[in-house]
Design goal:
Shape of chain A: globular
Number of helices of chain A: 11
Function (chains A, B, C): Catalyzes the phosphorylation of the hydroxyl group of 4-methyl-5-beta-hydroxyethylthiazole (THZ).
CATH class of chain A: Alpha Beta
Family (chains A, B, C): Belongs to the Thz kinase family.
InterPro entries (chains A, B, C): Hyethyz_kinase, Ribokinase-like
CATH architecture of chain A: 3-Layer(aba) Sandwich
Cofactor (chains A, B, C): Mg(2+)
Protein name (chains A, B, C): Hydroxyethylthiazole kinase
Strand content of chain A: 5-15%
Radius of gyration of chain A: 17 Å
Helix content of chain A: 40-55%
Oligomer: homotrimer
Largest interface: B-C, 32 and 35 residues
CATH superfamily of chain A: Ribokinase
Number of domains of chain A: 1
Chain lengths: ~270, ~270, ~270
């Protein structure tokens, strides 16, 4: 699988996929910069009048619910449907789902109208999507579902929505409903920076925009982010969170096949 | 008071307050990151459909008028009223008030409908709120109210709105209408970074979300920001403004009881 | 011309022009910070209810189409018209024009209703404005108009809209319809950071807000950005893209007359 991930990165760097983001205004700059750093080309556009045109020319479409409202929800659905018609992969990040009724309804509306190729969230967000209940302590919520078997949840969610599901946390778990990958890369300090989840989702968008195998693309994105977090922490820990934030972008920009081979830490299993 | 501020910081780090922000799209990333860096948990959400739910579960609500519009003004008022009903502290940042009629009307509408626990602004913004006139040279306006006694203005404003008022500038002045604290921490270079005011407000939100005494919470937040600015300037002055910006987040993330004791510079008086 | 550019910088630092931005939510923080770093005072406001008031008191108005929508398009037109009535310079950045029909119509609507003093874009964007056709591969599009003579295009566009046109790329070309300046400063790594184009536009806004000669102001802004990119790259290349991003802001903040004299690389010609 290392070779597949190395190839996936090379594809991103060579094809320079156009990643159309409909995303939140909190972490959007980081999402654009990380897409550029991995080798993609980001475009952010959410006017209902243009999302059809923009999604049509994109290599992938990222729907991130972070600061969703009525206007942008409608644009996300239009962009997502357009991508579906054209066979362009859609990556969905249900930020904060479980926290408010509106957020819940919005996520379920998107999932009912748009076929998503990849869903990425934390355990509490994905839990909600599976159970349509659960509670979150806001967007960066810690999971109180410790007694829940997260791996089973991820596999079930993948089978429910017939897509790849990526659950990020201390250990990342990715499944397409059959295969399961656990990724051990990353550093706990990443949760002290806003947007590391959103950046993961943008990386998935970039990888999926340049690779047909969305499962490998998603694993590659999460391993890329995890490795970048580890290397950035090593180099910036003396300085602190502001420099760590910049360090993550540094390391994504320097990522290459050799670093992936040296640093990737994961398990593969069939479920 | 040092011990009270040390305790206030510890409370933030232990309680990890959820700070619901309705804020501008210019400095929102910094607001989220500084909330995380001090130990809080930021959530940004401004859809009218969800702000009641989000504010209800928050530890504090921050209303920042930076890029206000009709849609977000309505959401701010709803979020603020909800917080009032639930006894959740509301921190108000009347960014740029005095600059345009719309901004003036919006600030006064918020203040008439929402009981704010803390108001933070620069002298020209607070002047306007007190006098309902004054002129600003835009958002980062220098005060031409030099002949005005700022301390009296802050005390009067605190008594007018029955809340804590924090006026930030070369010297920060905080009052609850009786006690007055002057804080001498900070560095003039901080005004060359956008959002240092907004970041202060977010820190106040984090401290108020974890502490019952809003006066101590506000003083702690401003001293935290001032100390971070000083330490960051020392470490990054050779490099420049971009690194100074990151340095502020570095230092907030490293702040501890000892640093507060060593670095805090302030005067207390009764008015 | 070096002396004129040195004078232009001094004017920015002394007059501290208020640059009213109506801009996108992706790069807005960088736009504000670079405006501060060069010595200006940024204000971001896009509510239709206040843009007349804000534009009226501004030294210059920047219209950046990055994440335009119906609401902000109307505000841009109102702000632009207000600036025209008051004789305040308007700088237009038609981000991504050519990519979608809505973006094309919006750009042409702005240009038909607002007299722009400066238009800045990349070759594909400016090509579209001239030809009203052309194709872009999204916002950061590479130009497939290699066989097109960009200099002729810039001159023609300047004559068509009776304004200064700045085309940024490997070589920057600026014309007022008669004079042409080519700027060789900059580093190719700048295109791996989102918003270097937007930041250029904000610098043009700051220079035009403090100088009557918009041609010199525009050249000064692009040379400032190019020099900052080169110096930042030298200092941060070991670290990577995140630090390079901060480095650009560092260098703009340290720019002075001597650095301009030492580092500026350009040609002047009459067309």
């Amino acid at each position: 699988m290392i070779q597949q991930m190395q190839f996936a990165l090379k594809q991103v760097q060579q094809k320079r996929p156009l990643v159309h983001h409909l995303t939140n205004y909190v972490t959007v700059n980081d999402c654009a910069n990380i897409t550029l750093a991995i080798g993609g080309s980001p475009v952010m556009a959410d006017a209902i009048e243009e999302v059809k045109d923009m999604a049509s020319m994109a290599s992938s479409v990222v729907l991130n619910m972070g600061t969703i409202n009525k206007r942008t929800l409608a644009s996300m659905i239009t962009a997502g449907k357009t991508a579906n018609q054209k066979g362009i992969p859609v990556v969905f990040d249900p930020v904060g789902v479980g926290a408010t009724r509106y957020r819940n309804e919005s996520a379920l509306e998107i999932l009912s109208k748009v076929t998503c190729d990849v869903i990425r969230g934390n355990a509490s967000e994905l839990c909600f999507l599976l159970e349509r209940k659960s509670e979150t302590n806001g967007v960066d919520a810690a999971i109180n579902a410790q007694d829940y078997d997260i791996q089973t949840m991820v596999v079930n969610l993948a089978n429910t929505f017939h897509c790849v599901v990526a659950c990020t946390g201390a250990i990342d778990i990715i499944s397409d409903g059959k295969k399961v990958i656990k990724i051990y890369n990353g550093h706990k300090q990443m949760s002290a920076i806003t947007g590391t989840g959103c950046m993961c989702t943008s990386l998935i968008g970039a990888y999926c925009g340049a690779n047909d195998d969305t499962f490998i693309a998603t694993c590659s994105a999460l391993i890329s982010m995890g490795i970048a977090g580890e290397l950035a922490y090593e180099k910036t820990k003396q300085q602190g969170l502001g420099h760590f934030h910049m360090g993550i972008l540094d390391e994504i920009g320097k990522l290459d096949a050799q670093t992936i081979a040296q640093e990737a830490k994961y398990d593969e299993t069939e479920y």
